[in-house]
Input
Amino acid sequence: MSTIVFASSKGGAGKTTAAIVLASEFARQGASKGMNITLIDADPNQHSAKWASKEGRPQNIRVIENSNEDSIIDDIEDANQDSAFVIVDLEGTASMAVASAISRADLVIILCQGSQDDADEAIKTIKLIKRQERLLARKIAYSVLFTRTHPAITPRTLTYIINEFKKLEIEMFNCSLIDREAFRAIRSFGGTIENLDPKEVSGKDKAIANILAFTEEVKIKLLSLSK
Amino acid sequence: MSNKRTGFDFEEVIDLDLVERVSNSGKSVNYKDLEKVAADSGFIKRLPQPRKTRRKRSPYTEQLGIKVRPLIKDIFQALGEKLSVYDHTTFELAILALIEKENDQDLIRKYKDITSKT
Output
């Protein structure tokens, strides 16, 4: 069992989308192995839960709704009993729920768009992780995932942020979550990107390739933890 | 022969079984310590907190308006100032002193009964 927490103290960074696509991909790959995935929705807006309530959610994804700062630790521990992977979607605020979830995380994925505000908030979350590491006397793996990126162009601000993060030796994903209609479409249609109708949504194959690249990187990071 | 090249099997480069691991995240932590670390980093409680206990209501609720001779009020207030108490306490202490002086056991008991409850 591994607990993956999607954190960003800023809203609209793409936490829910990233959490849903990772949960769906893990569910797809783990279905034949009898693996269950739990997706914990700790955002009061309940966007993950809304997605899950639509048709097409993989059968091996269980959703825990309405998790909050009082219940999140218990929810994670409960989910860990029968799930291969626990994925936590948090609210985009600097809340105690974020801190509690991080205290139980194996891997924290920090979502960041290519803006100064997002980068500042990412740093804030990393500082929290570092402080928690000292408190818990254990390493908490984290990595920054850039989201809503352009498939072809890297804006100067994003380049600057990446370079600064490199200087600070901040862990980053090699891939990013590209701004694609398919990612928005699953939120309207429900289900997974594989099940989207190509007539309704363009760029489905590219979105799938993007998810696979992201999922593989997550797996590499988790694998490196167990070594 | 197909006119399509065989794709690279990118997915499941790493078997998911290998990734599923025993979590090391179970170490318990004092929630208060966690709360402090979080607050120091700007991550605060967002849920509405239960209201702290209400301020104790004053037991001095009965109004008593009396008229006194000129300057008696000044003496009364000077006494309260000397004892560092409010007027209502000065008045009650004066009553207690009087009923003790009179050795009226019934009134002393009544007085103590009232003041011990509030």
Observations:
- Residues 72-117 of chain B form one domain.
- The first helix of chain B runs from residue 16 to 19.
